[in-house]
Write a structure and sequence with these properties.
- The structure holds two protein chains of two kinds.
- Chain A is α/β, with parallel strands linked by helices.
- Chain A contains twelve helices and 14 strands.
- Chain B is globular, with a radius of gyration of 20 Å.
- The longest helix of chain B is centred in the middle third of the chain and has 29 residues.
- The chains are: A alpha/beta, B mainly alpha.
- At the A-B interface, helix 2, helix 3 and helix 4 of A face helix 1 and helix 5 of B.
Chain lengths: ~325, ~270
């Protein structure tokens, strides 16, 4: 089996809304595939198809070589799912939630209890083990949700935006759990709106927008595909930003971007950067600093889609 | 990961019934967090029994005592019949919580996921029946059929509630909102109860609805309960009730499973 997850030409519409318009994905066993995209890109629908919860209109999805429609029951035996919204019973305690999952998977009462307590320790929930999950904080609920999806260690784990709405500390903790799982052989498919998260965890990234994969590869391949580097200029006086944008455009003929008191100029090679710098010194603009660097994934996304990722807006949305 | 050594693949594959029992226990577990629910379960049937008996009974049969003796048990049955909407509401809430998304992506019998809710509600109905039946006894109701007859009447009532609950499973899976489920209760269950022999004798009903009242499953239920409670010989009414229970289950279990597939895997 070459791929633990293999998706080809996946299509799914809900009425007039085309959630997926031909998605291809592949993840080698024991790796992390990051599916990166803004809200409404089709990430959740793709995860629901792969985890047997939604039937595709066209195309195929195979998990561990098994067709998710024809062999759904066998797929369910071997996967774990942490959906975007917590798959927990709010009236049950954290421990009871885990025991429920273990019991349904065939554990005896004692086995279920042992496994639940072990996960509660590992996910740092011991202080709230007997509290109703509905009264957990967002971060605790996420941890419990992830724990519930690995009660029986899955061969393939789907995580749909596992860290949306989490504080940085909880996010780091969750990342570590994912790394541990991958180290023990689990294949992980993770959707995210956070470029940093994909960069941190994923061996391969698929960028998805409006139901299509618009780019894929390793994080560094993606950066190269977009081409070139970025020249970053920081003027000493903030009001020089507009002038710098103008100068850069005259020098290399591309539209530079002003961001946080700095100017970012996409350049194809070092020679272009030199040309910009020559213009800037001719004009006598004082710089506090400058640098040439690889584009960030955020810049990659902008380049690929023509619009920015909407992480700023979504961060303000209440987490359900 | 010092814990990696623990076995996480359990070879004892448990069957559909065991999974249903696990799901039922899960529905009942919340009682431990909020024991006041134990009162909620019997409040509606209790209030229906007391208010109808005391405020309308005298008008209907001369004295409320006579009315209690005639209609007390069947009014309890009607109160519990109205309570089956809670099965629909409970299931609706489960699906909204997202816990069913996880369960659906697990190798668990779909029937068990639904039957667990029904089974848990049966426990609640049995509890409510015990309390409200106890109150009826305390205010003077006596069954001529004795303990055995009372047990048989309770048995057919619970059997009917089990079968009827599956219709509410379907409603819970197809409704768009909680309000819609409540509307169903008022507009469907109430006329069903009032066109039966729960309160009145068949021949006091308007001629136009008598044919329906004779067919009505609640008539079969009320008549069966009276036969057992009055120590009579069980006959056609019990057969009619059993036929209704079988029909309700045969229709609504497959429809519910189909609705489940549509709702949660599409």
């Amino acid at each position: 089996m070459r791929y633990a997850i293999e998706v080809r030409g996946l299509k799914k519409s809900f009425g007039e809304v085309h959630a997926l318009s031909g998605v291809d994905l592949a993840a080698a066993p024991g790796t992390v595939l990051g599916v990166l995209g803004p809200n409404g890109a089709g990430k959740t629908t793709a995860v629901r198809v792969m985890s047997t919860l939604t039937k595709p209109d066209a195309g195929s999805a195979r998990v561990l070589g098994l067709d998710v429609v024809e062999q759904a029951a066998q797929v369910r035996e071997r996967i774990g799912l942490t959906g975007q919204y917590a798959g927990l019973d709010p009236a049950l305690s954290g421990e009871q939630n885990l025991v429920l999952v273990a019991r349904l998977l065939g554990a005896s009462r004692r086995q279920a209890k042992t496994r639940a307590n072990e996960l509660i320790e590992r996910f740092d929930l011991a202080h709230a083990a007997t509290r109703a999950a509905g009264r957990y904080s967002g971060g605790m609920r996420r941890r419990l949700d992830l724990a519930a999806s690995i009660v029986r260690r899955p061969e393939v784990l789907f995580l749909d935006e596992p860290t949306t709405g989490l504080d940085p500390q909880s996010r780091n903790g969750l990342w570590q759990v994912v790394r541990d799982l991958v180290a023990s052989g689990t294949t992980v498919l993770l959707t995210t709106q956070y470029l940093e998260e994909a960069d941190q965890l994923a061996d391969a990234i698929a960028v998805i927008d409006s139901g299509r994969v618009i780019a894929s590869g390793t994080p560094s391949q993606l950066k190269q595909a977009v081409g070139g580097q970025v020249l970053r200029l920081s003027p000493t006086r903030p009001d020089a930003v507009d002038q710098l944008v103008q100068l850069a455009e005259w020098a290399v003929g591309v539209k530079a971007r002003a961001e946080g008191g700095e100017v970012l100029v996409p350049v194809a090679h070092a020679g272009e950067a030199q040309a910009v710098m020559a213009r800037v010194s001719q004009a006598g603009v004082d710089l506090a600093g400058f640098g040439l660097h690889e584009p960030t994934l955020d810049e990659v996304f902008l380049q690929l889609t023509g619009h920015r990722t909407r992480t700023d807006e979504t961060a303000k949305e209440p987490v359900a | 990961m010092s814990t990696a050594a623990t076995e996480t693949t359990w070879t004892t594959k448990r069957g559909t019934l065991a999974q249903s029992a696990t799901m039922a226990a899960r529905s009942l577990a919340s009682i431990r967090h909020a024991p006041a629910q134990l009162i909620d379960f019997f409040m509606i049937p209790l209030m229906i029994l007391l208010s109808i008996t005391f405020f309308m009974g005298g008008q209907m049969m001369g004295s409320w005592q006579d009315f209690l003796q005639y209609a007390g048990p069947t009014i309890i049955a009607m109160g519990l019949f109205f309570a089956i909407t809670s099965t629909g509401l409970g299931l609706f809430g489960d699906i909204k919580d997202g816990v069913f998304d996880r369960l659906t992506a697990m190798p668990v019998s779909r029937f068990a996921l639904l039957a667990g809710r029904v089974a848990a509600d049966m426990v609640k109905y049995a509890w409510a029946l015990l309390v409200v039946g106890g109150v009826a006894f305390a205010i003077g109701y006596r069954a001529e059929g004795g303990l055995l007859g009372t047990a048989a009447a309770a048995g057919v009532l619970l059997l009917f509630l089990f079968a009827a609950s599956w219709s509410m499973v379907l409603v819970g899976l197809t409704a768009k909102s909680e309000e819609q489920i409540q509307t169903w209760m008022i507009s469907l269950l109430m006329p069903l109860a009032y066109t039966s022999t729960v309160f009145v004798e068949l021949d006091t009903l308007p001629g136009a609805v008598q044919w329906w009242a004779e067919l009505n499953p609640l008539t079969a239920l009320a008549d069966s309960m009276r036969v057992f409670l009055n120590g009579g010989d069980a006959g056609g009414e019990v057969l009619a009730l059993l036929a209704w229970c079988a029909a309700l289950t045969a229709v609504f279990v497959p429809l519910s499973l189909r609705a489940y597939r549509r709702k949660l895997t599409d």
